[in-house]
Amino acid sequence: MTTVFLRTLIMYFILLFTMRFMGKRQAGQLEISELAITFMLSELAVLPISDTELPLLHALMPIAVLLTFEILLSFIISRNSALKKLLIGKPSVIIRKGKLDQKELASLRMSFSELMGEMRLKGISSIDEVEYAIVEDNGQLSVFKKEKYVPATNETLNTEYNEKGIAHCIIIEGKVFKDNLKLSGKSEKWVEKELTRRHLDAKDIFLMTVDDNDDVFIILKKN
């Protein structure tokens, strides 16, 4: 019993350290690769506890390999958008500018009743209240209400509604994201024109966004 108790404590702290090192995401925010590794880690941790004759090293080695692989994969994916799209996927816009994309909803194999159930959990009773709804790459639903349904503040009282939609990330760390560019309704020529007007180059930009009102926001890279 003492051996099982000590092994359980050891594996608990090893898993605690491993999960802490992987990041602070909640279970519902795990990406596919992280979820797969989490399941594998749990199985590896149980083996030396249930079988006391199995050396702890037989579990520690695979855990170390998985942790190293996850760190390397995260580093590579963060710098390769094509690989990220292949392994993790990309956000799916199912409501854009107040219009439901039925084709995108079907491709996600999500029924309309499931969509409305998710929206009700966010305090939305009607799809007419929504300007944008996006299924993120981790499966979470992000919803942005139309301006007229957003609770009033001192800044918005006595002002006309002006739907800004969402800010589309056009450039991230010097790279133009064509999928986001397409969603924004802009072209690469438009990006070139905006950068030329500001005497900037894409490689000098950390973040560039544009909303549905054509308001551009730029953060330059720090040297």
The helix content is 40-55%
- Major sheet size, sense and barrel closure: 4 strands, antiparallel
Tell me the strand percentage band: 15-25%
Query: Radius of gyration from the CA trace?
Result: 23 Å
Uncertain spans: none
Number of helices: 8
Mean pLDDT: 80
**Beginning-to-end CA distance, first to last residue:** 58 Å
Strand order of the largest sheet: 2-1-3-4
Class of secondary structure makeup: alpha+beta
Order of helices and strands: HHHHEEHHEEEEHHEE
> What's the overall geometry?
extended
Number of strands: 8
Q: What's this model, at a glance?
A:
The protein contains eight helices and eight strands; from the N terminus they run ααααββααββββααββ. It has 223 residues and is α+β, with helices and mostly antiparallel strands.
How would the blueprint of this fold be written?
Elements: H1 2-22, H2 32-50, H3 57-77, H4 81-87, E1 92-96, E2 99-100, H5 102-107, H6 112-121, E3 130-135, E4 141-145, E5 168-172, E6 175-176, H7 178-184, H8 188-197, E7 205-210, E8 216-220
Helix pairs in contact: 1-2, 1-3, 2-3
